[in-house]
Amino acid sequence: MKKRRPTKVIDQLDREIVLTSAARLFKIQGYERTTVKEIADACNMLPGSLHYRYKTKEAILIDLMRLGLEQVSVELIKACVGESNPAEQLRKGINAHLKVLVTGSDMVYVLLFEWRALQGDARKEMIQLRDRYEALWVGLLKPLAQKGIIHKDVDLDLLRLIGLGALNWVATWFTEEGRYTLEDIGNFVWRIIKQAVVVPGETDI
Amino acid sequence: MKKRRPTKVIDQLDREIVLTSAARLFKIQGYERTTVKEIADACNMLPGSLHYRYKTKEAILIDLMRLGLEQVSVELIKACVGESNPAEQLRKGINAHLKVLVTGSDMVYVLLFEWRALQGDARKEMIQLRDRYEALWVGLLKPLAQKGIIHKDVDLDLLRLIGLGALNWVATWFTEEGRYTLEDIGNFVWRIIKQAVVVPGETDI
DNA sequence: GTCTATACTCTGATAGAC
DNA sequence: GTCTATCAGAGTATAGAC
Asked: Which in A38, A65, B127, B193 has the greatest CB count within 10 A?
């Protein structure tokens, strides 16, 4: 009996290669301007082989976004787990989101900036996925409010929406060669939030 | 001698009709998914007539962005002129930016979200235009720092970049039917900024 | 599973009569 | 300035041999 790698493992590898290549192209050129031939070229496949994995170009985008959401969720959780101070959790979460969005996987960028390319049901599904990610942030912010670290009268939903917006937009102007490092930016956002909504002296609980 | 409207006036009217129609389509469908035929239909023209005004689809986008930038600049200036309190100028500026972006001209939305559709020189020109708009914000923030209303150690460039990012991202999730009005959102952002960077008691100068 | 070849559609742009 | 007709090119998806 011949020994061989389980089919599943090979498929998973292919999936990552295809989606990583596609994400880079989608980020640079945009989804619409990128052709399936370019994607195939980028992962050393012929268009026919790519079509064997994904029947349509849209299917690639959808699967890519699912993986991107998984990646950013994992990074956010990793950054907070093992940190007992909830204020520090928030600070680390901000830095993690920035890092994975800007210097990490292109899939997260595409997830956030190309959802308009999807229509109908697919768009709805992606919005639901995005909501699920944002629910992780609710889970970070709620304990801070309950413990009195964040002022009682701060609207947590608005804080999340505005805060994530501020972070997401960074991806539109950040460059490695710019004046600011990602840490500079993360620290700045953290300081703003801390000074605006955190009760003084409560960050060390 | 026949009396007739000066040619310039007619051209200017046509320009606004074309660009307004195009902006609405670009905002809903995105630039790439919108066809020149759709634009022509939307302004009751035939493709040939549209082509007489704009030789290429890209030329429409570029002119649209120029006009969008002009509009948002005018609204920002209008909101601040006649307000002597610099802190109040900032508050009104925030609301003006939000309003024109979200409920005002679709051109401003397109200006901010479709710059990736441009390539090469055209993209560089638009980035320069965006920088010119941001310079207006520098003009709002600098006096606040010089008068000691904003803490000396706040990086004004980061404050501008992060603040505008927070505002711009609102356009991706705001709906008229949602829980928050534009005023709610503007007030929230203003409060965050005020509590984070404004020296207490200095807002009434 | 992979590769070649191609069908079919759409679109931006143009030519030229009026 | 406007309209009809059309070209040339690009791009997605598919069929079918291997």
From this structure: A65
